[in-house]
Protein 1
Amino acid sequence: MTTNRKRRIKWGFVVFFTPVFLWLLLLIVLPQLELLRLSFVGTGGSGFTLRNYLAFFKEPIYWLTFVRTASYAILVTLIVIVVALPVSFYITKIARVRASGFLMVLLLVPFWVSELIRVYGWMILLRESGVINQLLVRIGLFRQPVEMLYNDVTMIMGLVYTSMLFMVIPVIGVMEGLDDALIEAAYDLGAKKLAIWRTIIIPYCMPGIISGSIIVFMLVLGSYLTPNLMGGKNSLWFTEQIYNQIIIYFNWNQGAAFGFLLLALSSLIIWAVLRLTGQSLKKVIK
Amino acid sequence: MKKVILAIGVLALCAGMAFGVGSKEAKAENKVLRIMTWSGYAPQELIDKFTAETGIAVEVTLSNNEEMISKLRATRGGGFDLVQPSQDRISSVVEQYGIYQPIDYSKLDIAQIDPSLLAAVKKNTLVGGKSYAVPHVYGTEGLVVNTAKAPGIKDFKDLLDPKYAGRVSYRLKRPTLIGMGFSHGYKPFDLYSDPVKYQAFLDDMEKLLIAGKPAVKTYWDNGDQLLQLLRSEEVWAASAWEQAGWKLHAENPNIDYIAPSSGALAWVDTFAIPSQSENVSGAYKWINFMLRPENAAFFTNRETYGTASKDAVKFLNPEIAANFTRGLPPAVLAKINWYPTVPVGIEELEGKTLDRVKASR
């Protein structure tokens, strides 16, 4: 009886697992392996070479772009933390239950449309002939419209906006477990607001902050649309270089090498941050 | 259980597709013409007309230059009977992979093709004494200018003028490098054969483009973005294709396409026959059919691209014909710089230059 049942479970497992396995193998693992192979081959298709990887370090334009992309990604992550903590605190601790559900929906709604549409929305608002400019000129605050798009500040704002949700949700998840009594006790003992944030709330939320940061950092590092459309003429993002190599110069080998460098270097940064903050990946993923 | 049913369904579908392919192959003997082309190049109306005339059914696969090359490379020139690559993407591909067969020009109705275009394409696709393509469609890249706001812009180099700070846009792509080169007195295409000189030329362009950056509002990279920038009059002059200029001209008469005084840059899409075409006679019939003046005019009226059919002008709608006489009169056409074949390695040099321009501030 038991053996029979075991066999049936196994069959069920095979039936359900095979599609997933094939999906992963054929559509994700195999193409990645092929890209990895390409990244070690020269453009002529001859033999093993490290040239594609060395090009990254030899040509300042490539690694400078990466440094720029990575430092902006870190900056965006920090801003997102600063913005997301009060928001999550308000939703979990201050707002009433029904209102907090409504606020969550408000946070989620913009993500029901695609990133492209959201970015275009911002562009319609901010462009020289856009909504905000017309409003300000009409009420007499500006004498003539000002171009608000195509600079780094706008680009960072766009990136913060598009990745906010991915910080708020993990932080809310953790913050809900925070016992209100801890905060009340701190008040009773005469702690200031800042001290409560510093010594109670932030340390308690650290796993949520870290997992949110990993998601936001990776999203920003790998984003293509927002820097390209909102950043304009000065915003060379590293993903754009990968795109250019593969689509425009047909140099799949170089593009693949950049792709793997992006993966390796961003993993390295995340590892370093985890070490610095004393968090372990296991704890964060849980 | 559902998964099993699904799996069976998928299998049945695959089997069906396999059979479908099989039967397609069987009836290919000169009754079917398989064309790989750009979107809009084979309108359904003309396909129906062709089938009614010749009894040959037409199967169209939409594609682009890169895909045409990689697909034909994978099948060694099989799977399609006729394709439409750009003229600068033919000779190097013939040399490297041998995926096209030479054109037998005696099978064509030469009288209906524009002689200067035919000569240019023949010259550019010459490999081992034989030519490999017939011109079909051409287009140019020049300037789209709002003449009420920026009357002084006549050439690519005027886009660098600090007078128009923040009012200019162009693509950060190779045509910009080439166009700027021509307007500064270089002959970029002649430098293709000498990478060292070409690099020196690129370095000069890099300096100019970085110095001219304050004039740029943003580098546009898709057609919609360009149209928006010009339509809202946020940008007064941009490098762009004539289709964009003519479209905006219909909305705002101040905006129009202008061929730069150093010559517009032009591309030609051609007909080429893959080396393992299974319906060569049908392919020639289609080429002659598409270049017949009334058919070519039908295409141009709809897509507003120029055609290599000599007498198509007679059948054009008046407003379409007016665009051509205004924007691309014979004097302008005579000065056009046609893109030659790009040698290996050149695009990589250009790519680095463009990246440096974009990254600088």
Protein 2
Amino acid sequence: MRPRVALFATCVGDVAFPNAIIATVKLLERLGVEVSFPQAQGCCGQMHVNSGFPDLAIPMVRSFAEAFSGCDLIVAPSGSCVGSIRHQMLSVARRSGDESLVSHVQEIVPRVRELTEYLVDDLGLVDVGAVFPHRVAYHPSCHSLRVARVGTRPYDLLRNVEGLELVEQENADSCCGFGGTFSVKNSDVSSAMLTDKLDAITSSGAEFVTSLDVSCLMQIGGGLAHERSGVRTVHLAEILAGTVN
Amino acid sequence: MGRAFVGIQPSFPAAAREALKDSQLRTNLAHATGTIRGKRARVTEELPDWEFLREAARGIKQQTLADLADLLVEFEKNAQAAGAIVHWASSAEEAIAVVREVAERHGVESFVKVKSLTTDEIGLNEAMNAVGVDAYETDLAELIVQIANEHPSHVLVPAIHKNRSQIRDLFIEHLGANEDTVDDPAVLASIARAHLRSRFLDAKMAVSGANFAIADTGSLVVVESEGNGRMCLTLPEVLVSIVGIEKIIPSWEDLEVMMQVLPRSSTGERMNPYTTIWTGTAEHDGPAEVHIVLLDNGRSRTLAEPVGRDALMCIRCSACMNVCPVYERTGGHAYGSVYPGPIGAILTPQLLGPGQAETLPYASTLCGACYDVCPVMIDIPSILVHLRATGPHGGTEKAAFAEVARTLSNARGMRRAHRWARFGLPLARLGSALRIGPIRAWSRSRSLPQVPRESFRDWWNTR
Amino acid sequence: MSNTRERVLTAVRSASEAMPTTSFSRNYRTSLEPSDSILELFIDRLLDYRATVIDLRLEVDADKIRTEIEAVLAERDIASVAVPVGLPDGLRPTCVPVVEDRGLTNSELDVTGASLTESAISVALSGTILLDHAGNQGRRALTLIPDTHICLVHIESIVGTLPEAIAKLGPRKVMTWISGPSATSDIELVRVEGVHGPRNLIVLLHALNS
């Protein structure tokens, strides 16, 4: 039987970085997975929780739970959103005082997978048949690394991409400085962190930077564009799907 | 440092902006935190049971908080039975009054001090100076900070913001070191030794904090490296130790856990050079008069916070600030508190109470590096997020987030969000070109993304 | 003051009232693997701290140990030694003046070249020597003020881990744990050995039973 998953596109992905999400769909379908896209989905609520408005996240959590009700497995190409779903969504549901929402969320959360987790753990693949003959720096986003805890899966997948050279970068696992509201409220510190990240990337000799999170790629890509660096940002799904043009 | 807990603090973003202008500071910090991160990683990775030790350390401190009142009473009883005089202080002023009374009774004009964050928290040195008693810091870094007339910028290495040549210059200016003194750390340490030697040997009184207070024995524990702690704790006739009430550990046995996790997390050593443990007074060994001040100063109020109370489990190892990307850029002074870095961002606002240090919970990208290294597994990011939720918000900000929340909750809203992003971002780009609005600071170092004409949803529905 | 005490305790009690009682596991190691050589590990750690190690692990003859101590004193030009009253006579050097600590003043200790003591128990994994200041170790000032501490460690008093040492020793009125000579990392986090405590720690391993 064909494996089936429901796609959580994430709000930023859906609206501003559709290429990453389209790549996710194309990749999964190429691997024989039947992908559905529940239309009622919106945001996981992380932005509001992390900005100090957890109660405003309640309707988002409710619509998430309704959208993915009855889905076996839910896949999202984002360490950050998956991390938030795992570690914050239940506490938001509890704030609603609605017991049925709480149990609904409790039932959904264990079925959510970050894309690399789904590929490696559920499909048992590290080689998805991708070809990408370029030098690539991987930015392990903080939330994929320390909240969703995807471990070495992204590296395992990248190492099996034909022609891809994974370059070392200094302090690879240090934060890019985005941090959502942080980049606005503490934009100076955010910029200082970004500067160091950009230095590490450009001196690594990479042609592309990739990550599991579009928000980090927006920060890093914004910095690279500002510096008029030739290094491009792509989501890992785009490399694996072969949709980078 | 009285500054931390009196007066109005500048906001973190403003203080950080100032700190970022100091490129020497950033170089010093990057070098120092990078070194200690590596050391910590090596000595924790070599222990196969490190995670078990963390779990036990967390368990011990959680048990401490749950049973704190009983443990304090038990500690007091055992310390008194061993000859200590136990005082209680609910505020900085009350703790200072105890030290002042002891100093006056013994007629001392000065005392030597072991590095202690708790005494910095209550502004002890400044308060005692005001009544004519000099407090001599004896830890090398505290000495450096004191002669520079600055404040500590790190809980473990208070002079982390200074490099060796800056310290050499201070020693020439304030300690009478020769003009041709080289900036070799070993040479600088020997100058400090010579400077403090007679102060130790002649001191009548010392003031310390404590790393742990053991309830079932009534003992205090001080962990240090240089031997200045041993000097202060051993040679004077009278010793006053100011101990935050959260420093309790239930039992002697618990030391076997805490003394494995603390040094490795802190200096990245398998064990710190010296640990002194004392229980009241001992005959013919050490101070004949031993005082212990159990200090609340905002701790019981923090303990009442179901989420935030975990901050009280902190054992002041400083691992969180050594891995924090924000601390590494700004240094400790930007936090305006003796407790900087991630732990400071959750501890300071709670110890100070409502309306204080409100920008600190936002001084983090929530990257989670602090949680990963914390030896007592304090979930600092979650507490930061919690403090953001309980703190104040501007009306405009709240209205904007409410609007976004309504938008991102359903399919129709998501389509609207795409239109906003498409047309809002060009407007923002225009704004940034004209250098207006909050976008201006962002776009000083970043370009805004191009939002494609077609959202993912559009693509899915038309393919 | 007693009012303050009640106020603090009442506040603490009410703050923690609703806290759940927690339990936790102590799954950490309480001993090393049999394959680990405790003695070699201990020496490795001490050397890492830049202590000096004199390895007489098989030595059971007091005269030979004393001779070795005298060699150390000669080599380092140490002209006087302070010892605790409980140090066995057979271990006391004869080549330099030896003063027994029966209440030496700080300045007397300050002009003494070295202290020579035994120790209570040692932990291999962290290279830590625990003094409980019994008669063979003396009071705390003795091993603090002189610039060199020669510390005798019986090889059978070395355990693998801190939990073993804590269990064996039990609480003591005063204790000093020593892991190498005094040190600081306060300047650029560069470790420098030798600040206020003894700048030289000489650990002499032996097998002499008193």
